[in-house]
Specification:
single chain; about 300 residues; TIM Barrel; 8 helices
């Protein structure tokens, strides 16, 4: 289990949840805080480009990154992409030689959840079993490599989950833990998660750390962004730390059409996270390959944008 031990300022109480939570504990101090980012669409990177990229993040002081394996369709074959796994292993090897740890995000997308996994989807029982096998096989594909943590489902879409949907998420966590002793979690939208009452709190109990994707802006705290409010931020912090677990903000970021605003937002969110005792934050996103296709990108080709240098 990923835990915290040091003291800090206590967060405010969350909205009522469907089941009682343990009493809140003080959040950790920022001394153990990690700011990083996620790398996506890396399958086509050459070895030279991998070296260039890893040296850029090393120079910025990164101590870890997250790699996205794209499970939008490959789960249906119950196997991860062989080229994706091979490139991820190459990145892991180089990162670890430079003291940079690597997490892996098995990244399902909105359409995957809605079309194939929810209660109303045709054949969802078969598709769910395929996804469970995909998770098992993806983790096993990295036997012999050190992956710091696994995120095994991204943003399930039911805003009021059924018992069946909650149980499916719990089964995904269990399937992952069959194949790894490293920490395992599920990435939720910050506005619709166990800590907001939209999913069972048993999911937060089952994961080793809590993940939330958040695009809320602390510079404008009264504005809800994709369902996230300041109260929900406080709720997720309490949900993690009352369980003795870390809170990871696994996505936050800003459109790069205004590069100065993107940089200012990232700096403001990191400062906020440190002040609230949030444990780790990962900017969305780093995509050197086909960089113009990703509006939240921190890179233009292999040249970082100003916002990248605010990750510290």
């Amino acid at each position: 289990m990923i835990t915290y031990a040091s003291q800090g300022e206590e967060g405010s109480s969350p909205p009522a949840s469907p089941s009682p939570s343990p009493s809140p504990q003080p959040p950790p101090s920022p001394s153990g805080f990690v700011a990083s980012a996620e790398l996506i669409n890396f399958y086509s990177m050459t070895s030279s480009e991998v070296s260039t990229f890893v040296n850029i993040i090393k120079a910025q002081g990164f101590t870890e990154i997250t790699l996205r394996l794209n499970a939008m369709y490959e789960w249906s074959n119950e196997q991860p992409s062989s080229s994706g796994v091979a490139k991820a292993k190459e990145i892991i090897t180089l990162c670890q030689s430079l003291g940079i740890a690597v997490n892996i995000d098995l990244h399902t997308w909105y359409t995957t959840w809605d079309r194939y996994f929810d209660d109303s989807a045709s054949g969802n029982s078969v598709n769910r079993e395929k996804y469970l096998n995909y998770v098992r096989n993806a983790i096993s594909a990295f036997d012999g490599y050190t992956v710091k943590a696994w995120m095994v489902l991204n943003e399930p879409q039911a805003q009021t989950a059924s018992t069946s949907e909650n149980n499916f998420i719990l089964s995904v966590i269990s399937a992952a833990k069959e194949r790894t002793q490293m920490p395992v979690s599920v990435r939720f939208m910050g506005g619709y998660s166990p800590s907001t009452g939209h999913y069972s709190s048993a999911i937060d109990d089952a994961t080793d750390f809590l993940c939330r994707n958040v695009y809320w802006d602390p510079r404008n705290p009264d504005k809800s962004v994709w369902g996230v409010t300041e109260a929900k931020m406080n709720a997720m912090i309490q949900a993690a730390h009352s369980r003795g677990k870390e809170l990871w903000i696994t996505e936050f970021g800003r459109h790069n059409s205004d590069q100065q605003d993107q940089a200012n937002y990232i700096r403001a969110f990191i400062d906020y996270a440190k002040s609230k005792g949030i444990d780790r934050v990962y900017v969305w996103v780093m995509q050197p390959e086909n960089s113009g296709a990703e509006p939240y990108n921190l890179f233009n080709g292999y040249v970082p944008l100003p916002a990248f240098y605010e990750i510290k």
